[in-house]
Amino acid sequence: MVQQISDAELEIMKIVWGNPQKVTLFSYIMDGLAAKGKPCQKNTLIVLLSRLMSKGFLSARKIGRRNEYTTLVSETEYQTTQTKNFLNKIYEGNAKGLVSNLIMGDLLADEEYEELKRLLEKGKEKQ
Amino acid sequence: MNTVLKIFLSMSFSGSLLILILFLGKRFLKDKISRQWQYYIWLVVILRLLLPFGPETSLLGKTYQAVEQAMVHTTPPPQHQPSLDTPGGILTSAVGLEQNNENENSPTEDLTTAHPFRDIGSFLTEHVWLIWLVAALGLLIRKVTIYQGFIRYINAGLTPVSDIEILDRLSVAAERAGIQKPIDLCVNPLISSPLLIGFFHPCIILPSIDFSERDFLYIILHELTHYKRRDLFYKWLVQVTVCLHWFNPLVHLMSWEITKACEFSCDEAVLAKMGGDNAQDYGKTLLDAMAAVGRYKENLGAVTLSENKQLLKERIGAIMNFKKKSTSIRLLTGVLTLCAIFGAAFVGVYSVAAADAIQPTALQSDDLPVMETLELNGTTYYLVFSEAQLRAIGTGEYGMDRNYMQQADIQLSTDEWVPIGTWDAPFTGTFNGNGFEITGLTMTDPDAEIIGLFGVAENAHIYNVTLRDYDIASAGRNNQGKTIGAILAVGGQGSRSYGNFAYPKETSEDIYSNDKRPLSEIDRYYEADSLPLFEIAFFRLDESEKKTWLEKLYADGDIAFFHAAACGVDTNSSLLSDIAEKAYNDEEISFFSILTDFMDETELVSWLDRALEDGKWNFQSVLYDKLGRYDEFDELEEKMEKEWTEAQMAEYQTVGVTMDGKNYYYQGQLVNIFLDIRREGSFYKLDINPKGTVNIKLTRNADGKITGVSYMTDAEVTSLLGDMDDD
Question: Is the minimum CB–CB distance between A51 and chain B shorter than 8 Å?
């Protein structure tokens, strides 16, 4: 079961997920936050990282004096659980409601709509 | 009483003294001395309360011993207190000499155990340490579970602060405070005031995040200071101390005082960092934090910002008065610190030396004292520390044939001493007094036969024993055949007793001052076999010591020294006649003949009469010789010889050997070789008559009775006369 994380923690996770390397270094995250315009103190980041570790999102390997962080939860996994939660919470598990709301509310661009349609048909063929 | 508990009680007592002194000092110097000092000085007290170390001579070490003795001597019930009857038993203890009382092992206590009431009582006193330990453990476990419950309570409603801005503020403050470890920040609306938990993963918990930037900084700084100073560890150290000293109300008081001092000093440290100008703001923060009333009473194990309202008032007072301490005050606090530390050391615990001496005995059970052993050059020595152990020699595995080494001065109780070694089971091992003393040996049994530290010894070595204040004068007064020797009563074959000193109780005062030297000298001279010096030293001894020496020499069979010693005895003294009596009874003709040199005529005559009456002809001959009655002596000798020959003839006749003058006849034939050898080889008769025709020999049994006569074989004759033929 994937736990809930705070916004600050999600920011960090996004940086780690966005890293093409397998392992992420502390300074990489530090720089990533600064690039996003959300710089923070070293100790703050350490605290946040240790929270992420205790929540099972990250694991750390100490090599000398530096920590190498690896993700334990992939971005898709996280998104899936978050969507499920969202579905359950707002639409009581009714995906149709969500999709119709997306369409009706003009939340989708035309290309996105086409893309979605293709995805739906592909899913149908599979069944 | 249990030794560990005794030491612990003394620690508690010493600690209490220090606590009282600090409380008193606080009254006078409260605002003058740094709060930090007032906080940390308690560490000295805690160390005193927890560590059983102290210098050898401490103020209270002696007191504790004196108290202990007083207790030991008052505990036996009056009806079972023989020490009251014998003077000195109480006296020595009242003086407070260093002594190891082992009364619980003494027979006095054994008597009392017959009482069921006393039984329970002694059981309780002996196991009171168990009660103490169980209570201490119980309290500690309770504190830990309460703390765990509190942590669970806090964790239940915990929300980590995810506002990076706030976290950054904490990080900056921590960095400035010099804290390396990242500190987490959480919010829990259930708590009333900010607090810090976690030994290894520190976490500051706030009741809410709605603080002004300034308030937040103060609060954080306060908690960070707690963390930096490891106040949590201090707090738990205090808690452990309180659990162990649960019976001591002063320790509880101290714990409360430390909690207070902890916050005061923390405030001080924060203000020192912020600058005194911020005092008012800081005080206001404290008040705000206190606005919410505590919802969870117990804040044990966590360090909070505010503990209670009364304390808060004091704290705000202190904060407002905050000013940096001057150099002179710092100097003063330095001196005070040293005083407290030296005080703690000096107050001491139950004297370590005494405790060490007692330690081994603490292991022993009441029934059979356990003796430690020491391997020395392949010999096992049993170590004797206590009266119980000394009394155990000759029982169980501690046989009479073992080697014993005294390891401590032993104060004996006034219970009747049972000499080590009896006629049936003599002491045959070794006993090394090792220069330690045995004090207060008492024997009063009027029928005692053997009187002394050791009774009968054979092939034993008893040395370096110092016997002090012994009281054996009244023992054996109804017994004529008694044997007295302070150290060793009866030194049997091969036993040696040397390097020993014995000081009877009555004259102990004089002996300490005057006679110790001659005594040790004489022992040395005796060891060195120096007869003339021995004689001089002996002359300077007092009557009872001379007696001891005479008996000792007599027992050792040392005729030369005995003679020298006898010369040194006052002619009016009854010492020699006593010994003479003994020698006469023991048939020790050699000692007796020496003693006759010191007898006057009337004495000699009376002895002669006695010898005549008893038919002890060897004594008679000595006495005749001494009295110059040579005629009578010759007469006696003739008579004796005649008697002897007659007896012999009669004896020989029973087996068919007849005598006619110097000729022996056997079965009608003249005997050539007559051989009569007694079994022990002490006496033999060989008679050779060249005219004889037969060779005979007598055989005797173990009792010396003639059992038969036989002809000698040629081989026997050759072996007997082989040498003679060569001539």
Answer: yes
Fold of A7-71: Arc Repressor Mutant, subunit A (1.10.10)
Asked if ipTM goes beyond 0.85, one says: no
Contacts of A51 in chain B (CB under 8 A): 160, 184
Q: Calculate the CA A82 to chain-centre distance.
A: 9
Question: Cβ–Cβ of A40/B170 closer than 8 Å?
Answer: no
Dig out the tokens for B91 from the structure: 């006296």
Partners of B168 on chain A (C-beta within 8 Å) are 40-41, 44
CB pairs under 8 A between A and B: 45
Per-10-residue mean pLDDT of chain B, 727 residues long, equals: 74 86 80 78 87 60 57 46 40 39 42 56 75 90 89 84 84 84 85 81 84 81 86 89 89 88 82 72 68 44 55 70 65 78 68 43 51 81 87 85 88 87 87 86 85 87 86 81 82 79 62 47 77 79 82 82 81 78 83 83 84 80 80 77 79 78 78 73 68 79 74 76 54
Q: Which residue of A has its CA nearest to B173?
A: A43
Q: What angle do CA B55, B59, B63 make, to 5 degrees?
A: 115
State the best of B163, B164, B183, B200 to mutate against chain A, taking most chain A CBs within 10 Å: B164
Domain boundaries, chain B: 366-564, 656-726
Q: Which residue of A has its CA nearest to B163?
A: A8
Residues in chain A within 8 Å Cβ distance of B172: 41
On whether the CB atoms of residues B421 and B453 are closer than 8 A, the answer is no
Say how far apart CA B674 and CA B649 lie, in whole Å.
13
CA distances from B428 to B60, B158, B431 (A): 44, 79, 10
